[in-house]
Here is the input.
Amino acid sequence: MRPYLAIFGARFRALLQYRTAAVAAVLTQLFWGLLRVMIFTAFYAASTAADLPMTLAEVVTYLWLTQALLRLLPWQPDVEVEQLIRDGNVAYELMRPVDVYGLWFARAVALRSAPVLLRCLPMLVPAVLLFDMGPPASLGAAIGFVLSAFAAVGLSAAITTLLSVAMLVTISSRGVHVLTTSAVNLMSGAIVPLSLLPAWLQPAIAVLPFRGLLDTPLRLYLGHLPLHAAPMAIGHQLLWTLALMLVGRMLLQRALRHVVVQGG
Amino acid sequence: MPQIVVEDLRKRFLVTKRRRGMLGALAGVVRREHHVVEALAGVGFTVEAGELVGYIGPNGAGKSTTVKVLAGILVPDEGRCEVQGRVPWRQRIEHVAHIGVVFGQRTQLWWDLPVIESFELLRDIYRVSPADYARRLEQLVHALAIGPVLDTPVRQLSLGQRMRCDVVAALLHGPRLLFLDEPTIGLDAPAKLAVRSFIAALNREHETTVILTTHDMDDIEALCSRVVVIDGGRITCDGTLEQLRARVGVQRRLTLELDGDAPLHQVEGATVVRREGRQVVLAFDPRQISPARLIARITEQHAVRDLLVQDPPIEEIVTRLYDPAPRGTP
Here is the structure.
């Protein structure tokens, strides 16, 4: 574990250096958060439906949490790995006496956790104090949320690494990138809380891994998923993480057999 | 047992040809033309422990391809290759734990981190024990004089400093075999000398086997007891520098400085290569006429102020090896 922890630690520390970017991001996310709260308030005021699956207060809390955890989402491959592949320094990566997938996964875990850590407190404090974000439904809900959020980091890192591996095959990541961004945004709950999406989409949402990125921890927080459902929900996250890691590692092994480090 | 055994190694690359212009690009959508480049066409050699081997050849000859196969990052199409008893690409993790690699045109240090933190990361990645790490680091930092830059972020290092740090990075896990791919590229003279003398000492004192690819013939001349030449994916020569010289059969040079203006037009047994004022450069084949004989013959007829006998420069030998067609001169 030592090599992987070392790589994680180095990347984590490096990412914590980007404080100015974090301040700018917090301000932007606060602004976007307010905008999204207003839009949903307007929807709820205009709605005539009787049995909405979430109350407005719950939606507001959900929205602020998505704003705070936004950087957890695997929108793109790891830029550092992308760079390595483009300039051929991936050669040195292969010179390490460790599992390359493990190396990239450790990096991805840092990439998906450090920025969130840096941003979530400065986001949540004003959200709770000024903008009507509610507390967790119960102590159990809070614990469930934290556990599930950790699982979400793992899931996100597995998807990120899969995207990085895809780069080895295609060199450019644009195509995969665009597809994943749309899928992740819609199916994780980053745009609209998943419970508010149409019923015909729910089976797909339930099966796909993306709800584990945001919706699962947030619903645990709200108490929408009762505590006894938490093991199943977190199990869904872990199962997908494991599956995606296995697929990613297998693809990487195959790609490495054909890899050509160009130049020099 | 040899450290490296390579037999009949072959690797082909498929290169896509693009036709020129708009029509060509459209045609390329429908049907691509490939052509096969044979990077390695049956390469074979063995290297014993403790050797310092220069691996040279023109650009595109297959040097880097060979090194990549030996380093375990490229899988050959055919052939046998064992490094320290391991097949590099099959036992990659075991293999790379016991070799060191410096690719001169790249760096394995972390761009944003101070040098020392890169070293500590490598220590953890290679699972080096704290005691070994401390001992090796001290030796290496001292030998390559990088103490003053240990706390500097890598991006702020000069090329010479960076290269020395890269050499340290490749040796922290104490490999018995070191691949150096153009380690002196772009370095100024003092930095080249520093890297060279370090490599020589490493090979001498620690008996580390070194495989050195380079275009810098001074590197070869200063370091390598053995030279392997590759061209067109094949080994064209393998031996000591002297054997190389003998094989190419380049003539030796005699540079004369004449006393007086009497012109020297020709001497039996030698040819005039160059004439500049009173300085005349002659080429001769030592197997046909000994230098002493030749000089005696000249001094019989001409007053000579100064003379110098030289081996041909290695650049010339290599140029001849790469291009066996005889040139106009000597």
In short: Chain A has one domain: 2-258. The mean pLDDT of chain A is 87.
